[in-house]
Amino acid sequence: MLYNLLVPLADQIAVLNVVRYLTFRTGAAVMTALIISFLLGPVLIRHLRKVQIDGQPIRDDGPESHLITKKGTPTMGGFLILLAILFSTLLWANLENGFVWIVLFVTVGFGAIGFADDWMKVSRRESKGLPGKAKLLAQTAIALAATLWIMQLLPDALSTSLAVPFFKGVLLNLGWFFVVVSLFVMVGASNAVNLTDGLDGLAIVPVMIAIGVFALIAYLVGHSGFSGYLQLHYVPGSGELAVFCGALVGASLGFLWFNAPPAAVFMGDTGSLSLGGALGAISVITKHELVLAIVGGLFVLETVSVIVQVASFKLTGRRVFRMAPLHHHFEKKGWAESTIVIRFWIIATILALIGLSTLKLR
Asked: Contact 33/251 with Cβ under 8 angstroms?
């Protein structure tokens, strides 16, 4: 909004020229989202406590300690993240950029699905929300609309292609199968973050790390000079997503202030589904879908642990892990929650650095 309002005036008022710079607006988006989170957080948490008398329903089959340490904590804190992202992005991004609207569409759409799921849980006072098939169908519909929109805005050479990390000249033209890949990336990333969100601060920091990496990727891919030097596939207009990524980082930092152990609020599906969906959409736009699997490797690991656990139990009647997702396995082994969270953060950081290396090692 400010970009569209102030840039036309920059020729007359020199100080406004700073709004033209993507780096400035990205930094401003971080600070704006952070301030919004700090201002609205206490108000929203008080309201959630009033509405959710018993807080988020705790699974009976989960770690026993959760029935004591997590009981009474309100959920749906992801609504705070969504508000901060939405207002900050609308304030600082170029609203004529189609990619910005696509990512906002996915983020808000997946957030709405998560909100409905969270509301059903707290209103019924049980750990089951929306039926899994209904949730998956709604996610697929939103991801399909976003994919078709993305294909219209991408250059023809990239609209149905998949880039391969570490190989500068490899671009696989998948045709209409690209739609399936894109759906898998968005829906998969959304649910992977959702599965990871099980301990205080466990999901939000790896999301921040991953989105920080993609802020840089979006900036480089959207810059003809940098993308040419690094031999990346140039996607005109994608650099504007750095502003959205900045807003997400600021909103996540603000949420972490309240989610740090012991959490005053949980993000719930409202936050986890929307953040994962945003990551997936940005990776599709920037043609770094496979890099997301590296940068977000922690989310992949958590998801695989669930798949392995379910498959093993159905085929052999035995469980590979004491409990899935993976972080619960370590809880069952007696690891302290803070130990699990910090070690998983370290893993997320290492994977992010490996993902960043794909930008240069080609």
From this structure: yes
